[in-house]
TrEMBL record:
Protein name: RraA family protein
Keyword Nucleotide-binding: no
UniProt keyword list: Signal
Species, as recorded: Imperialibacter roseus
Residues passing through the membrane, by range: none
One Pfam family linked to the record: RraA-like
InterPro entries xref list: RraA/RraA-like, RraA/RraA-like_sf
Keyword rRNA processing attributed: no
Amino acid sequence: MNKYCCLIAALLLFATSLSAQQVTLTKDQIVAMTSEWKGERLADGRPKVPDDHLERLKNISIEEAWGIMRNKGYHNQFEGDWMIMDNEKPMTGRALTVQYMPARADYHEMIMAKGKAENRIGNFNSWPIDMLKPGDIYVADSYGKIVDGTLIGDNLGNSIYAKSKNGVIFYGSVRDEEGLSKIDGFNMWVKGYDPSYIQGMMLGGINVPIRIGRATVLPGDAVLAKKGGVIFIPAHLLADLLINAEFIALRDQFGHQRLREGKFTPGQIDQRWTDEIKNDFLKWLDANPDKIPMSRAELDAYMKDRTW
């Protein structure tokens, strides 16, 4: 089954889930939707990209990640123009996606009844928090609602950080910004702050495909949030993206150093490298093992297949 058939199947399963009154997609539905991922999965079915990959991702620039995904045919994975609590600290994690919608009485009553039957506690905006695991990021589309669209305050923020050791990305708003700023380690990318309480909204679904501005996000996407914006990376692309971006960064470090030293000219560095430059680069790697973010075996295997 090709990826387009898998996507159609997943969407059909999603439609079926709504008629069956599910709050979240099932594990099988999430696996079908993210079928190109072949690695470990979380209990709910989301891809579990390795923790060390998420840590390495913090050092990748938005531009590098964006460019690599564009070359892979993924053109709708970035959203910018955020209010950020601490824009000096990047955040990476696995997306737990949530869809919110303007309230409609019949659907709202149905989803609340289903939540009660599933023993979900509290208001619907706390249900995703109960599902968070370490390394998750609560990613929510609340359709840009600011006034009366505040998904969390400092109480829920404390719970989010306790469960995920991460923060949130909301295409909407939060309240209690001062209290949230006191949660050590917590960070957030949101569209606004407001003192109002959430009202006139309802839950559409958890771990479903969502839209964050100009980006499409699936459950388990790897998230890279930085000062310049947020990139949502399909899990199956992350390993390749990392090694490509890290190699480009190594080339740039080497090239910049040699240009400062006057050993090579800009014309030599900017064109396809000669054997002289390649051999010098390999010696530079041997002399600077601390600059290599991946294992040397991984790097050597990558360079063996590279055309330079």
